[in-house]
Amino acid sequence: MELDSFVEERRREDNLPGVSLAVVEGGRVALSRAWGLAAGAAFHIGSLTKLVTAVAALRLRELVDLDEPVREPGITLRHLLSHTSGLRRGPYLTAPVPTEERLAGVLPVFPPGERFKYSNLGFALAAQVLVRAADRPWKELAREILSDGGPPVPGHQRDHYRSLVRPGDALRPPPPIAAPEGAGDLVATADDLARLLAALLGGGLLSPASLAEMATPYTPGYGLGLRVGRRFGRLCLHHDGGHAGFSALLRAFPDDGVAGVILCNRCSARAPLSEILDLALRPRLRVRPPEPERLGRFAGRYAGPGRRIEVVGDQGLTLRHAGEEIPLRRLGPDRFLQARGPLSEHLLRFTLDRDEPWECVTGPLRWAAEEEGLWPLLWDGLSRGHSCDPRLTGVYSHPAVGDVRIFPRHGRPFFSFFYGEEVPLQRVRGGRYRIDGGMLDGEPLLFHGDAIDAGFMRFERRAPRPEDLIP
């Protein structure tokens, strides 16, 4: 499909106020387009800031040693820039911006270097180390790498920072927020970011050795300030960014000399931005990308207690439920996100047996392939035999971040936080639990009856709604 018509379709279907796209090819900005707003518009770029922090650290090698401990217990700059410091993820957008004094009292939840754990606190600390070493303000260090885009365009959201937006939903301005320096504070245009990518791909900012260092995965999937993976069968360096009212996505294919960045002034727009960026980049890759995988094996009718769903399609899947047709967006080999409808904001996961699906799961609800007749065995209700405290089960809400859900599965309480993430809780003592996986891996969750504390945030219990799927 032609790019303009596809973007306008995505803007209409996904309620995107404005989109700005820039593509780099052959060391220059080869494409720069904007839809719904003026060319050259500036955006909050969220966690794309982390790329700038990593570049700044590598440019200051004469002042800092990436492998010298910068704080106890033996945390180095390399740990901070590769998300292996073990530090907690950190305060979200409405929490106080972490100062060096505030960070000093934060202990890691895992030993440094043991595993990947995404940490905004880690990058905030890295920026503070660079500021102290260079004896210059952070903004000055950052603007040597990425030009200041000026005041950002107005951001938009439907309900809260991570709420999904459906066609026709009324959008509103986001609340005022403050993001940590070095972790999510910068503002830029798509062209500014594209010129940064062109300089990186061409070695204009860093030596080839430093570029290779950035692209080395220190844990599976993450280098220094960038995710490292494969897309279309090619090496792909990438990162996304989220901010109240804004979304950002960046991808670079260094073996092809091709990169792109896309920005939007609406929260939680990663899925449509990914589709647009793919359409702009794929034709420019030197090797023809493989055809999209056919997904017809997931199609079929699934039955559960009092409910039936149908999945139809081949190259793209649609869920039919309660008279609605809901597009499914793929998140992994067997995981999909429901873009809208009564089951939105819930992950849909298929269980495969010899590559054939026999059940699918959404939160606490499960369906079996209808012809198997197995659904009576699959219901994870609140009745007999599980150890999940029913007082804990429910939906809790934060005014900026949105909802989290706690529900029983296989006899354990599960915690749903952010799209596509459902992880078990491990009971420690009293009202304390430990989050076992995901973005808040290893961090404590405290239950207060009408509220929970998780990730430096207080979530208050709210009244259930039909779409919550909590029994």
Report on the architecture of this protein:
The protein has 471 residues and is an alpha+beta fold. It is built from 9 helices and 26 strands. It has 3 domains: 3-284, DD-peptidase/beta-lactamase superfamily (Beta-lactamase, 3-Layer(aba) Sandwich); 296-377, Lipocalin, CATH 2.40.128; 394-468, Beta Barrel (Lipocalin), CATH 2.40.128.600. An 8-stranded antiparallel beta barrel has the order 11-12-13-14-15-16-17-18.
Poorly predicted regions are: 377-386
Into which percent range does the helicity of residues fall? Answer: 10-25%
Query: If strands are numbered along the chain, what order do they take across the biggest sheet?
Result: 11-12-13-14-15-16-17-18
**Beta-strand share of residues:** 25-35%
CATH architectural arrangement of the largest domain: 3-Layer(aba) Sandwich
Count of DSSP H/I helices: 9
Summarize the structure.
By secondary structure, the protein is α+β, with helices and mostly antiparallel strands. The chain has helices spanning 3-14, 49-59, 77-81, 100-104, 120-134, 138-143, 190-202, 208-214, 270-281; strands at residues 19-25, 28-35, 42-44, 69-71, 75-76, 187-189, 227-231, 234-243, 246-253, 258-264, 300-304, 307-313, 317-321, 324-332, 335-338, 347-353, 356-362, 365-369, 394-398, 402-409, 412-416, 422-429, 432-435, 444-447, 451-454, 457-461.
